[in-house]
Amino acid sequence: xxxxxxxxxxxxxxxxxxxxxxxxxxxxxxxxxxxxxxxxxxxxxxxxxxxxxxxxxxxxxxxxxxxxxxxxxxxxxxxxxxxxxxxxxxxxxxxxxxxxxxxxxxxxxxxxxxxxxxxxxxxxxxxxxxxxxxxxxxxxxxxxxxxxxxxxxxxxxxxxxxxxxxxxxxxxxxxxxxxxxxxxxxxxxxxxxxxxxxxxxxxxxxxxxxxxxxxxxxxxxxxxxxx
Amino acid sequence: xxxxxxxxxxxxxxxxxxxxxxxxxxxxxxxxxxxxxxxxxxxxxxxxxxxxxxxxxxxxxxxxxxxxxxxxxxxxxxxxxxxxxxxxxxxxxxxxxxxxxxxxxxxxxxxxxxxxxxxxxxxxxxxxxxxxxxxxxxxxxxxxxxxxxxxxxxxxxxxxxxxxxxxxxxxxxxxxxxxxxxxxxxxxxxxxxxxxxxxxxxxxxxxxxxxxxxxxxxxxxxxxxxxxxxxxxxxxxxxx
Amino acid sequence: xxxxxxxxxxxxxxxxxxxxxxxxxxxxxxxxxxxxxxxxxxxxxxxxxxxxxxxxxxxxxxxxxxxxxxxxxxxxxxxxxxxxxxxxxxxxxxxxxxxxxxxxxxxxxxxxxxxxxxxxxxxxxxxxxxxxxxxxxxxxxxxxxxxxxxxxxxxxxxxxxxxxxxxxxxxxxxxxxxxxxxxxxxxxxxxxxxxxxxxxxxxxxxxxxxxxxxxxxxxxxxxxxxxxxxxxxxxxxx
Amino acid sequence: xxxxxxxxxxxxxxxxxxxxxxxxxxxxxxxxxxxxxxxxxxx
Lengths: 227, 240, 238, 43
What we know:
The complex is a heterotetramer of chains A (227), B (240), C (238) and D (43).
Chain A: H1 2-22, H2 24-43, H3 55-76, H4 83-89, H5 94-123, H6 132-157, H7 163-190, H8 195-224
Chain B: E1 6-17, E2 20-31, E3 35-39, H1 46-53, E4 61-66, E5 69-70, H2 76-79, E6 82-85, H3 97-107, H4 113-123, H5 139-152, E7 157-161, H6 169-184, E8 188-192, H7 196-202, E9 205-210, E10 213-219, H8 226-238
Parallel strand pairs in B: 3-8, 3-9, 6-7, 7-8
Antiparallel strand pairs in B: 1-2, 1-4, 4-5, 9-10
Helix pairs in contact in B: 3-4, 3-5, 4-5, 5-6
Chain D: H1 2-42
C-alpha cells in the first residue's frame, strides 16, 4: 500500500518535471483558458450586470476546456519511446500509475486555475464577495472529480488513433452530474447565500468523487493490460 | 552438460489472441548463468512470447516461473528481477540521463541510487552529458542509456528484445561487452533476435520458434560455427 | 459448410408472441384506452414513450451486465450482446427523447424542457453513443472488449448520479402521471390507461429481446464468416 | 392529433429503420457466404 503511494509520487514527480522542463502543455492550457474567457466576454457583454450570473459556470467551462487539453497529453506523451510499456513492465502496481497521473494532472490543472480564474474575475470586472473557504473547497472537489474521471478516460482513449477527439466525447457525458453540482454549489458560494444549498451540492460532489475514484482504481488495471 | 539451477521456466505456455493461437504449449527452461537465444521467422510469435515472459501479457494457459515464483498479474516483486531491454528505450526525452535513471531507480527501489547511476553513466560513456535532456541525443546514445537503465536495477535475468537492431558499431560493441560481463557474473540472459552473427557470439543455446511452437533447440558451446548454425536454422525452418 | 442459423425455437416463439402483441397493443392504445381529458389524443404517445424509456434503461443495464461478464472472462458472445444491446439502447433512447419532445411541444408548447428525466435520458443517449465509439476503436477484439466494458461499467454507475443531480437541480415542470413522490396531484390514471401502459411496456420489452437476439445472431455469423475467410486466405496463401 | 400522428410515425419509422439495418447486415452476410462457397469450390 505504501509502495503504491510512493511509486505514485515518483511518477507524479516525473510527470511534473517532464512537463515543467518545457512548460509547453501548461502554457498552452493557460493561454487557451484565457482565450476562452476572451471569447466569452465577446459572447456576453461583460459590462452588463446580469453577466455576473454566468461567472460560476465560466469557472468550470475554462477548467474543463483547458483541462481536456492537458488530459489528452497525459497518456499520449507516454507513448513516445513507448514509456508506458516501460512502466507496465516495471515492478509497480497499475494503480500507482493511475494515482501518479491523477496527482500530476490535478497539480497542472490547479496551476492553470490559479492563473485563469483571477483573469476571469478581472476581465469580467467581478467583485468577489463570497466566502473563500467554500469557494476553494468547491473548486477542489469539482476539479478532483474532473481529473479522476478525465485521467481514467484519457488512458482509455489513448488506445485510439483519434484519441484527442474521442476523449471529450467520452468524458463530457460522464461529467454532467458533477458539473451540475459544481456550478450550483459555486453559485451558492459566490453569491454567499443559501450555504446549506452549497453544502448539499458539495455532498453530491464528494459522493461522485469517491464513487468514481473507487471504480476507476479498480478498473484501471484492465486498461493497462495489453492484449 | 552440467546441471544448472533453473532461472526461468515456461511450462506448457499457450497464448490465444483474438481467435488465433499464437503460442502453443511452449516449454522451455533457462538455467542460471545461461544465455538462450530465441530465433524464428517473422510472424512466429516471437514478440508475443517475449511479452509473456516479461509479464506484459498473461498466458492463456500454462505458467511462467521466474526464480521459483509464478509470474502473475499482481506479482510486482518478481518483475524487479527482470531487466527488460526492448525496441524502444522507455526513456523520457525531456529529462536528462541522470533524471531518467533516477526515476527508474526509484521505481525499482534501487539503493545508493546517485552513486550507482553516476557509475553506470560513466560505464556507458554518457557521464559528460548527464545534465543534457536526451531529446538531442542520437539513437545510439539513447540506446546506451537504455542499457544503463536496465542494468541499474541489477536484474537477475536480462531479457533482450532484438537488442542489436538500429545500433551503431560502437554501441554494439559496448552492448556485447556488457552482456559478456553479465554472463561471467552468472546472470541469465534471454535474447530474441534475428541477427545470427550476434546470436552466435553471445548465446549458449539457441531455440527456434516457428508458428508458435519451439521446433528445435541446439547447444552451441562455442563448437558450432556460424555457418553450421545457419544451415541448421534453414533446415529446421524450411523442413516440415 | 456455413449455414445461417437464424431462428431457433426461442426466436420463433418470440416472434409469434410479438406480432399479435403489437397488434393488440395498437388496438389498446388507439381504440380501447380512454382519451385523456386535459391533454386529449396526444396523451396516447405516452404509452410508447414510457415503454421506450423503460427499454432504454433496461438495455443500458444489460450493457453493464455483459460488460462485467466480459471483464471477468472475455468471450466473443458477451462482447457481442453488450454491443447490440447498446445499439438498441440508442434506438429506444432516441425514441423516448423524440416522443418526449413531441409530447412536451403538444402540452407545454416547447420542444425541450430542462427536466430531470429528459436530461437523464439525453445524457444516457450520449453515453451510449460514446460507448459505440469506443467499440469502433482499432485493435484486437479482446482489447476493445476490455476497454468498452470498462467504459460501459463507468457509464452505468453514472446514470443514477445523473438522475439524482438533475432531480435536485430542477424538480418542477414534469407532470407526474402516476403516483410517485410526494407530489401526486397529476396522478390518478384510469385503470384502462394503466393496463394499456403495462401492456405497451411488455410489448416493447419483447421487441427488445427479439431484436437483441436477432442482432447478436447476425454478429455471431459475421465472426464465423471472418474466421472462415481468414482460413481460406491462409490456405490459398500457403 | 397531428402531434400524435407525428409521434407514432417517428416511432415506427425508427423501429423499421433499425430492422432494415439488421436486414442489410444479414444480406451482406449471405453475400459473403456465397463468396466463400465460390472460393471453396475453387480450391
